[in-house]
């Protein structure tokens, strides 16, 4: 497999770009693999990559019902950060952020990771106190954070609503300078190419439709391309988790909801970081093509449809205009939806399951894109070693029976609030 480099770019340009080789193969599924990963999203592909790279396990297939990049990994608003309060989340997401920092080089694929800073706005004294506490917790764990007062925010983003009659006055904000954005589908393609190079079979158009069991073990999976035997199975199907887990006889503390995203017509450079609104759920950044990329709350009912509804569109736009009034003059160019796997405490699950050789990666709520490399790293470890990595010990499924929940937002078991 050829390395991507300036030299290969020049060589291929001179050859009329006819000699590029496929980024990954398109193999027929074998009868059996040591490890099957169900779901070819960011997490499934990263897991396969790190199984091969970190653990030398290469007899691996990733089974994807659609195409690589067609799920949430290619639908998100690309925000990457590690600004968490609770240790269980903080260490895990910081591990992920550190992997992001070297990911393009690691994969020999430009994932366009841009550390442009993520700012959370505060709109009351109470919220400033909460951000000071969160920022301190981050700093104690070696994670970068800066508490900004109103003038500090104004210096960064002078066009937010600072007027005396603003609906939600801005008091300040918490900035994570190392946070930022990445190109989402490049992440899927980079991990797919990287895993393929290490011997992993990526099998698209291959939906898992059932599991074959012998006692407490899975012996194979039924798919639309026939039955495939396996030693171990890792499930990373994001919004489809409840449905696929049900096929294996598991009921999980997860609900599926649609989350929409929007992009405006392209503009000259305006927003050079990521801004999130603290008085409602709204986040915005600017893509390299100039479009403003924005999103807000999930649609407030369960669904498996990858498209959303108008009341949520209005709700998101109202929040956006309250924060940044000049948005009113823009036109929305496109919108789309993805199915979110909302867990009951708002934190992810990377865990062994009651079935001996079935492992679970799910519950990503709004934030699984930023976790992609870290999640793949620790999930691969969990599958390879049959025990959690220290960073995903607090993310076990067992926490819902023992009560050791990671309720970062203090929202209780109400997925629509996370
Ligand atoms: C609109 C939107 C905005 C978001 N914004 C952000 C953000 O800014 N920052 C952030 O960190 N996170 C964000 N997220 C969340 C993030 O995208 C997800 O948490 C993350 O991508 C989920 O992991 P994944 O990439 O593996 O999922 P997916 O890409 O959805 O992968 C799961 C795969 O499993 C496949 N699958 C399902 N069922 C089967 C089956 N039976 N057999 C075989 N394959 C199957 C699916 O086809 C899919 O490709 C956002 C999500 C959405 C929808």
TrEMBL record:
InterPro entries registered for this protein in UniProt: FAD-dep_OxRdtase, FAD/NAD-bd_sf, Rhodanese-like_dom, SoxB
GO biological process terms held by the UniProt record: tetrahydrofolate metabolic process
One Pfam entry name: DAO
Keywords recorded for this protein, A-Z: Cytoplasm, FAD, Flavoprotein, FMN, Nucleotide-binding, Oxidoreductase
Named cofactor requirement(s): FAD; FMN
GO cellular component, one term: cytoplasm
Major site of localization recorded for this protein: cytoplasm
Record domain Rhodanese: where: 35-79
GO molecular function: nucleotide binding; sarcosine oxidase activity
SUPFAM superfamilies the UniProt entry points to: FAD-linked reductases, C-terminal domain (SSF54373), FAD/NAD(P)-binding domain (SSF51905)
Family named by the database record: Belongs to the SoxB family.
Catalysed conversion reaction: sarcosine + (6S)-5,6,7,8-tetrahydrofolate + O2 = (6R)-5,10-methylene-5,6,7,8-tetrahydrofolate + glycine + H2O2; sarcosine + O2 + H2O = formaldehyde + glycine + H2O2
EC class (word): oxidoreductase
Name the UniProt record assigns to this protein: Sarcosine oxidase subunit beta
EC number annotated for this UniProt entry: 1.5.3.24
Protein localization: Cytoplasm
